[in-house]
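Exercise 7. Given the encoded structure of a 287-residue chain, write a plausible sequence.
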């Protein structure tokens, strides 16, 4: 049987993984909710399926590997809600199943370090939904599940440069606040390494080596662009959406030793400085 990845919610991180697998003669089936995305997925070598909607039984029959990027909604994990029994019935068919979660499942640690053994104590609605989904996936008997807890994702098309250029970037200052982050290319390399070295039941933190205050990232982006450093705004008085403000409810530094020690991953971008430098260089090279 050829290696076939069935990717539920084939978005930013899943596309980065596909760019590694397709040249190695993998078949990739990716779901999307939008018909507008069908053409671009096909052009990139993906076999798209509109889902929910399409009959996923043939794709499940063909799959050797599953990646779940779809976010939980008010009804829980959408893949499990629709397809749990079909997936459970084929548990021994799959060589690897990956679930993309978030470091938000750890909750707030007042800027202290967490690792994969840290108890899950999420405080936000999003974090609680992800922790619940992790548990539900883990409860399927015999499923070779691997959980990836992703820090804040950035990469091509997702960086601070546009806001710095157009003058809308702000340096929100909250004392002691730190975030971990990860470049999408490193997410893809971690997933590929896990596929090559499965360890069912494992959870991995996917982040760089340098948790940092968010205002430092904005300031560095401005320096790279040769533009003035955006103004500092106190968190308490900042005009922010409830969603944006919720990201500041938790502060922690995330350890990534396991992806290095167990999977042998060497990060392409071990800190935000190297990542932003590469993004800007790629932008300039593209004109």
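Solution.
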């Amino acid at each position: 049987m050829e290696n076939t990845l069935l990717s539920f919610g084939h978005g930013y991180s899943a596309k980065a993984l596909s760019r590694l697998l397709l040249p190695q003669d993998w078949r990739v089936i990716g779901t999307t909710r939008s018909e507008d995305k069908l053409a671009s997925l096909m052009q990139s070598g993906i076999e798209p399926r509109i889902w929910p909607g399409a009959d996923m039984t043939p794709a499940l029959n063909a799959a050797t590997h599953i990646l779940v990027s779809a976010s939980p909604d008010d009804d829980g994990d959408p893949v499990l809600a629709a397809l749990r029994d079909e997936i459970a019935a084929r548990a021994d068919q799959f060589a690897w199943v990956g679930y993309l979660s978030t470091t938000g499942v750890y909750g707030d640690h007042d800027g202290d370090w967490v690792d994969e053994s840290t108890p899950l104590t999420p405080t936000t609605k999003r974090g609680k939904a992800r922790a619940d989904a992790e548990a539900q996936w883990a409860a399927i008997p015999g499923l070779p599940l691997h959980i990836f807890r992703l820090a804040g994702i950035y990469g091509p098309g997702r960086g601070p440069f546009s806001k710095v250029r157009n003058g809308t970037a702000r340096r929100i200052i909250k004392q002691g606040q730190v975030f971990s982050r990860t470049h999408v290319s490193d997410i893809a390399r971690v997933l590929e390494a896990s596929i090559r070295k499965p360890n069912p039941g494992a959870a991995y933190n996917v982040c760089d080596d340098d948790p940092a205050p968010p205002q430092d990232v904005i300031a560095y982006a401005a320096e790279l662009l040769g533009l003035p450093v955006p103004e500092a705004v106190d968190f308490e008085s900042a005009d922010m959406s409830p969603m944006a403000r919720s990201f500041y409810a938790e502060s922690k530094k995330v350890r990534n030793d396991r992806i290095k020690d167990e999977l042998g991953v060497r990060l392409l971008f071990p800190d935000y400085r190297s990542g932003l430098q590469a993004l800007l260089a790629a932008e300039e090279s593209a004109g």
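Remark. The domain at 4-153+182-209+255-268 is CATH 3.40.50.720 (Rossmann fold). Students should compare their own answers with the one above.
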